[in-house]
Amino acid sequence: MHVRPGAARRGVAGVQDGALVVRVTARPVEGAANRALLETLAAALGVRPGALALVGGERSRRKRVRVTGLTADAVRSRVEAALRVDTPGAGG
C-alpha cells in the first residue's frame, strides 16, 4: 500500500499503481505515521489495531501490512466498502 502522511484527513483514498492509498494526518516522525496507518486501516476493516502488523516498508511510503483474523476475501470486501465510503464522489 502507499501511505500519504500529513494529509488533511485520514482514510482509504483509492488505488494507485496497484497499491491501496491510505491517507494519515500524522507526520512520519518517530513512527507516528505507521501507528496512524494501522489505526486507520483497523477502522476501515472493522478490526482492532492489534490485529494488524507492519511487515514491510517501515521507513518508506510503500508498506506491507499483515491482517490477522480475516480471510483475504474478507479484507478485499472490507477495503472495497471503505473505498465506497471514503472516496469523494463515490456512491454509497
Description:
- This protein has 92 residues and is of the alpha+beta class.
- The chain has a single domain (2-86), classed as 2-Layer Sandwich (Conserved Hypothetical Protein Mth637, Chain: A), CATH 3.30.1200.
- It is built from two helices and five strands, in the order E-E-E-H-E-E-H.
- The radius of gyration is 12 Å and the shape is globular.
The shape, in one word, is globular
- Rg: 12 Å
Write the element-wise H/E pattern from the N-terminal end onward.
EEEHEEH
Helix content: 25-40%
Number of strands: 5
CATH superfamily annotation: YggU-like
Strand order of the largest sheet: 1-3-2
What is the topological layout?
Layout: E1 2-4, E2 11-16, E3 19-23, H1 32-45, E4 52-56, E5 64-67, H2 72-86
Parallel strand pairs: 1-3
Antiparallel strand pairs: 2-3, 4-5
List keywords for this structure.
alpha+beta, Conserved Hypothetical Protein Mth637, Chain: A, three-stranded mixed β-sheet, 25% strand
